[in-house]
Design goal:
There is one protein chain. The protein has 17 helices and 18 strands. It is α+β, with helices and mostly antiparallel strands and 495 residues long. It has four domains: 99 residues, Uridine Diphospho-n-acetylenolpyruvylglucosamine Reductase, domain 2; 118 residues, Uridine Diphospho-n-acetylenolpyruvylglucosamine Reductase, domain 3, CATH 3.30.465.10; 110 residues, Alpha-Beta Plaits, CATH 3.30.70; 140 residues, Alpha-Beta Plaits (2-Layer Sandwich), CATH 3.30.70. The protein is globular and about 70 Å long. It binds flavin-adenine dinucleotide.
């Protein structure tokens, strides 16, 4: 559409929507100038951008209901946004749609010590929950590396994970009840404050639904008691195989660490340069393993883990003796992505999850693919649950590099599916991985997803175009694969 028509359509929609919104929402909470809207044009996947029609920043559930009703009546799409730390363009606005910012919902309403739960608003930052309940020796288990900034509403929408999810589960395992506002503007409670809720398990459907099924306006989270003891261990390896096998061996021996992470050499060096945490820069890989529980349990498991690591040629094994040392090791790991940001202007972070036994093989294949595409790929990941985060470093201002980075990303996700894994472990699909959904699911499965979406959002106004590809899109994507003359999956035998 020519620019003048786009502007006219925007003006028309604004003239219809603004007065309606303004009936219940103050002008200062409705942003319409291009300068103000720029802030909301992308999430942390910065290579995709789109300005919204307007941004509205409600501060009460009644205001959210009002926004949804206005948009429903005028058929205007709505994209919810938490803190905008998503890595898949999930909260990127849609053209001529409303961006519904939830950043004013930051209250913690009720900390219930007897039931070990807290009722919170969706804009509360992830770490703020654990900070608020720390005086009671409790914490909220999901801990994405972005936990200083990301919102719990965003965690619910993405079913976020983190270091401790190996033992304590993803967001879905750590919440009991949600209040959502539907596309029509109705408030609905899902789940229950008690352990089991009658009826269908809509909680599991809503968690990870990426803002496509409802706007989360309240969350009852579960709180866990802090373990009596927690020790963190860092071990170096001179080969990827030994490190990968050590991960599988630890779990195979019946030990479930609180966290089990792996970093490759480029990652180690980048982190060390930023954080000076004592990571061994000569190692091909390091494993970080946290054990928690009673003092006796932790001591016993520590001995077993060290013996496994030594048998698999682990060296320079450091074990934390106190909280400060544990923090030193973890803080450096959590700074991995800022550290990588110093190596290249852009970073395409993959999120494939694979069966643990395939870790070393997939890791080596990724390195071979990176060489084929002449790009640097750094591996920093939650190895214990097979959740890989290969980060493709590139410069988006160079068109060819950008194209190669995207193609390499696709090949990596294909590889994950090929070995029996999935294209997303915790970051969601958004727009970034929408084509790869066509690799993971067949038409019949996608039709079920569309039917579900329709049941919640008949007019398809909530975050349209994200997460679930149309069948036509998949037909085109799959045709392009054949057209390029490519095998749908990389040939593992070549590497
Ligand atoms: C440096 C870095 C490290 C990261 N590490 C991890 C990690 O270890 N584990 C992990 O899982 N993720 C990680 N992430 C990704 C990201 O932080 C998570 O996906 C997080 O849950 C997003 O929360 P947010 O508040 O920023 O959501 P946003 O980015 O604002 O939105 C994400 C999605 O949620 C929807 N949404 C937001 N709020 C609501 C709501 N109230 N109701 C309905 N839908 C809503 C949006 O529409 C969008 O689809 C990382 C990101 C960065 C930048």
């Amino acid at each position: 559409m020519p620019d003048s028509c786009v502007d006219k359509q925007r003006e028309y929609l604004l003239s219809k929507l603004y007065p309606e919104l303004h009936k219940a929402i103050p002008a200062k909470a409705i942003l319409t100038s291009i300068e103000e809207l720029r802030v909301y044009e992308c999430d942390a996947f910065t290579t995709m951008r789109q300005l919204p029609l307007l941004t509205v920043l409600p501060d009460s559930i009644d205001q959210v209901i009002h926004v949804m009703r206005c948009c429903y009546d005028l058929d205007i799409p709505v994209v919810a946004r938490g803190a905008g730390t998503g890595l898949t363009a999930g909260s990127m606005p849609v053209e001529n749609g409303v961006l519904l910012g939830m950043s004013k919902f930051t209250r913690i309403h009720d900390i219930d010590l007897h039931n070990r739960t807290a009722l919170i608003e969706p804009g509360v930052r992830n770490k703020a929950v654990s900070d608020a309940v720390a005086p009671y020796n409790l914490y909220f288990a999901p801990d994405p590396s972005s936990q200083l900034a990301c919102s719990v509403g965003g965690n619910v929408a993405e079913n976020a994970g983190g270091v401790h999810c190996l033992k304590y589960g993803l967001t879905v395992h750590n919440i009991l009840e949600l209040d959502i506002v539907t596309a029509e503007g109705e408030r609905v409670t899902i789940g229950a404050a008690a352990l089991d809720a009658a009826g269908y398990d809509l909680m599991a459907i809503l968690t990870g639904s990426e803002g496509l099924l409802g706007i989360v306006v309240a969350i009852r989270v579960k709180l866990l008691p802090k373990p009596a003891s927690a020790r963190v261990l860092l071990a170096a390896f001179s080969s990827i195989e030994d490190a990968g096998n050590a991960i599988a061996e630890i779990i195979g021996n019946g030990i479930i660490p609180a966290g089990l992470e792996m970093i490759d050499q480029t990652g180690i060096c980048a982190i060390e340069e930023l954080m000076h945490a004592g990571y061994p820069t000569e190692a091909a890989a390091v494993i970080i393993c946290e054990l928690d529980g009673s003092i006796e349990e932790v001591e016993e498991e520590l001995g077993r883990v060290i013996s496994i690591l030594e048998q698999l040629n682990g060296f320079d094994i450091q074990v934390s003796d106190n909280e400060a040392e544990s923090q030193r090791i973890w803080a450096a790991r959590k700074a991995a992505f800022p550290a990588l940001a110093r190596l290249a202007p852009d970073n395409y972070i993959m999120d494939g999850t694979i069966p643990r036994r395939a870790l070393a093989q997939v890791w080596k294949t990724i390195n071979a693919l990176a060489a084929e595409y002449d790009l640097l790929v750094v591996n920093v990941f939650h190895a214990g649950d097979g959740n890989m985060h290969p980060s493709i470093l590139f410069d988006a201002s160079c068109e060819d590099q950008h194209r190669r980075a995207e193609e390499l990303g696709t090949r990596i996700l294909e590889l994950c599916v090929q070995v029996g894994g999935t294209i997303s472990g915790e970051h969601g699909i958004g727009l970034e991985k929408i084509n790869q959904m066509c690799l993971q699911f067949n038409d019949a499965e996608l039709r079920q997803f569309h039917a579900l979406k329709k049941a919640f959002d008949e007019k398809s106004l909530l975050n349209p175009g994200k997460q679930i590809p149309t069948l036509a899109r998949c037909a085109e994507f799959n045709h392009m694969h054949v057209h390029r003359g490519e095998m749908p999956f990389p040939d593992l035998e070549r590497f």
